[in-house]
């Protein structure tokens, strides 16, 4: 298991910042080193299945027979894809581990939707969510004025984790 988690961590740390061509090169290199990856897709399509102690496809986490809520506004519908499942998995792991998260990418790729999905899935008795919309006009004093005061002696401060979403 340690070897699987090491390779998964390597893929989603050092090897995550490459372009599509780099992913193919890394995929070939790691497959030569670690022969347990399934032949289908690339190494970026798999996570560690702790129950079976092997690689499992993010595609297996997709909801079968998903239907959009009929009463939901169009702009709030998020169609589950392998990408959204993968990034929800990764961001949720980082947030619950209390690591800061920075998601970047082109406009319209689902960064905000992934962040909202992860934050909505957190236990509200343990986590407090504060959303601050940023632009070039937002000053620091306006940003910090929205932060809640946690200095109540009877209520412990909830765990802290920052998620930042930026567009290129």
TrEMBL record:
Keyword entries, A-Z: Signal
Cellular component annotations (GO), alphabetically ordered: dynein complex
Signal peptide: 1-17
A GO molecular function held by the record: dynein light intermediate chain binding
Domain Dynein heavy chain AAA 5 extension intervals: 1-60
Keyword Signal: yes
Signal in keyword set: yes
Superkingdom as given in the UniProt entry: Eukaryota
GO biological process: microtubule-based movement
Pfam assignment, any one: Dynein_AAA_lid
InterPro entries membership: DHC (IPR026983), Dynein_AAA5_ext (IPR041466), P-loop_NTPase (IPR027417)
UniProt-annotated stretches for the region Disordered: 138-168
The name this protein goes by in its record: Dynein heavy chain AAA 5 extension domain-containing protein
Upper classification of the organism: Eukaryota, Metazoa, Chordata, Craniata, Vertebrata
């Amino acid at each position: 298991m340690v070897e699987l988690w090491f390779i998964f961590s390597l893929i989603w740390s050092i090897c995550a910042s490459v372009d599509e061509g780099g992913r193919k090169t890394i995929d070939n290199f790691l497959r030569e080193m670690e022969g347990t990856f399934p032949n289908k897709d690339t190494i970026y399509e798999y996570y560690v299945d702790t129950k079976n102690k092997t690689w499992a496809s993010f595609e297996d986490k997709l909801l079968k027979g998903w239907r959009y809520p009929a009463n939901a506004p169009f702009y709030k519908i998020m169609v589950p894809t392998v990408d959204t499942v993968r990034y929800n998995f990764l961001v949720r792991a980082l947030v619950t581990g209390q690591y800061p998260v920075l998601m970047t990418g082109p406009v319209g790729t689902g960064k905000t939707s992934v962040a909202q999905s992860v934050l909505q899935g957190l236990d509200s008795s343990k986590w407090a969510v504060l959303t601050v919309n940023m632009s070039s006009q937002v000053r620091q004093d306006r940003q910090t004025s929205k932060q809640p005061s946690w200095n109540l002696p009877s209520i412990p401060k909830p765990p802290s984790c920052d998620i930042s979403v930026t567009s290129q």
